[in-house]
Design a protein that fits this description.
The protein has 337 residues and is of the alpha+beta class. It is built from 9 helices and 13 strands. α3 packs parallel to α4.
Length: 337
């Protein structure tokens, strides 16, 4: 906790004076310590070589703390995962906080410590940032923006690279983040230990790259879930995708919530689950690696790429019928990240 007299964020913490300097030095610099950040220049001096990936995202989750994570863990994991899906080793992140006046200092410190712990899992560093404090009522507690830069280790992975015969692999059970947020937001008192899947995916991807697994496409299934990813791929690569509903891992807790609310798990958000397309002949090798070395016990092949129903995703139901798995519509679970 910052060495100052405040228990809540004041407007002065964003004013550029003593209070702001204390917040940045005692909390942010301490948690994210590295020479580039501590140089306190107007811009970070980075050493970049070769092809790099660059991404940005903003996080406004409600509630800020949920089973399996918080907005800080989500901000770091979300940006690192976007880099990882391009086979880019996460190296540098920026971080901007928009904090509402009156926000508890202890909660801010918890969020910052969560971010520091999540950074350690990928080796990425926060090298620049910004802090703004807005009057009470002008923000919902805290908003975080993170941008990330990483060095691409395996070029060519793209939504446009799916090929006929590719296997479609999902890394774990789907819909956990959206379901966990729903439970936390609506204070559902169910007999369930459901937690968000919020996690950094780079260690898994790093192992796949090291094993020289040929990967055509990867995408973390965040907003819109599995349905959105598969439809984006089918359209971008002008292919058809067929998936078998029986093979898609869904936890009983998530399935129960979907039945209660009338949702489909395919549409619910994830924050530590990714989808991968790769040649069929390499699929078993990839699965073995993911299960043995990456703790992806539920990883499985759920379908394949075809030359039929171009631009569409076809779902085979447990009863043997087929239907299109459409892009999610409407606002099922707002503000899940």
């Amino acid at each position: 906790m910052p060495a100052n007299k405040y228990q809540h964020v004041q407007l002065s913490h964003g004013g550029g004076g003593k209070e702001m300097n204390s917040l940045i030095t005692d909390m942010f610099f301490k948690a994210f310590s590295n020479p580039i950040l501590e140089s306190q220049e107007d811009a970070a001096d980075l050493n970049l070589t070769g092809h790099c990936a660059f991404t940005t995202d903003s996080f406004t989750v409600e509630p800020l703390f949920f089973a399996g994570g918080d907005i800080g863990k989500l901000a770091v994991a979300g940006t690192v995962n976007d880099l990882a899906m391009m086979a880019a080793q996460p190296e540098y992140l920026s971080c901007s906080f928009i904090i509402e006046e009156g926000f508890a200092i202890k909660d801010l410190n918890t969020i910052v410590q969560s971010m520091a712990a999540e950074l350690h899992k990928s080796g990425a560093r926060i090298v620049c940032g910004d802090t703004k404090v807005v009057p009470k009522g002008c923000a919902d507690g805290i908003f975080i923006n993170t941008s990330g830069v990483g060095r691409i280790l395996k070029p060519g992975i793209s939504v446009k690279n799916l090929q006929q015969g590719d296997a479609i692999i999902v890394s774990r059970d789907i819909g956990r983040h959206g379901a966990a947020i729903l439970m936390a937001r609506d204070s559902l008192c169910l007999e369930s230990e459901l937690t968000s899947d919020c996690a950094t995916l780079w260690p898994i991807v790093e192992q796949l790259i090291a094993a020289n697994i040929e990967i055509h496409a990867m995408r973390d299934a965040t907003r819109g879930g599995l349905s959105a990813v598969l439809n984006e791929w089918a359209n971008a690569s002008a292919v058809g995708i067929e998936v078998d509903e029986k093979l898609i891992p869904i936890s009983p807790q998530v399935q129960g919530l979907c039945e209660l609310y009338g949702f489909e798990a395919f549409d619910l958000a994830n924050e530590g689950t990714f989808i991968m397309a790769l040649p069929q002949e390499r699929a078993e090798q990839a699965l073995t690696m993911m299960k043995q070395y990456c703790h992806c016990d539920q990883a499985c092949i759920i379908g394949n790429v075809t030359n039929q129903h171009l631009g569409k995703v076809v779902l085979t139901t447990p009863w043997g019928s087929s239907r299109y798995l459409d892009v999610p519509q409407g606002e099922l679970l707002p503000r899940i990240c």
